[in-house]
Amino acid sequence: MTAPAQRSTRQRDVISRVLDTAEGPLAVAEVLGRAQGDLPGLGIATVYRTLKLLTDQGRIHPVTLDGETLYEASGRGHHHHFSCTACGKVFTLHTCPVALPRGTVYPGGFIVEAHEVTLYGRCPGCAAQMA
Amino acid sequence: MTAPAQRSTRQRDVISRVLDTAEGPLAVAEVLGRAQGDLPGLGIATVYRTLKLLTDQGRIHPVTLDGETLYEASGRGHHHHFSCTACGKVFTLHTCPVALPRGTVYPGGFIVEAHEVTLYGRCPGCAAQMA
DNA sequence: TTATATGCAAACATTTTGCAACGCC
DNA sequence: GGCGTTGCAAAATGTTTGCATATAA
Description:
Helix content of chain A is 31%, strand content 29%.
């Protein structure tokens, strides 16, 4: 009773690479668009199936931002996100503004296992345009 | 040319009260269910329309958590959320773990206008059950 | 060869919209 | 009475699934 065989296909390779080389989390439509650059005939169903597969494998994970589900590659270490209120792009931040290690007991008796922080504001590019 | 008149209806009153008296953010289905306790015939479209109306008025605002959109009353001051990984309930936290006032320039040149923090872990009740 | 993966289209789930009936003001 | 609001059903979105064909191994 072994796990079902996993095949390496061009579709999966391309979708994986799109996420691995992305500068931040991507929306499903964005993944489809970028992957179609290499595979014009790629279907949206394959993207959804592959995203689920990669998520189950722990190679990527979903990030929900303003109601939209984005996907990003795992294994990039602890980080957070910055959502630009001007251009809408989402950036990855490598500095963490909170000190809440696993096991911290938060006021009220909440035992913290993990945390997520999202910052909103102007990204460097949009801030420069305003000036 | 004044703004269109807003009418006070039983539906809007009930939906507003459901959110005002909620202990935390509620999912749309949860709002519908609670409101139907008072208004059995209430339609889901009215709930969506009213949620959008109240949001536009700034009286409530959406909170996205794990891909689900929840709504909570505004004007409760700055706070964050704790999502229990055991029972799934979402709690409101009144202590803020970050010091990022508006205008803070975050490493990388990001100008912070707002921030959101979500903590994950065991709520007091679930933590007690484990012990 | 053969079981898994893909693409298409149909099925679902969720949210929005059109419209006639209804009810505040 | 008039116009905003409601409930229903249809439409628009976003995501999943069935199935015949294509393909990795």
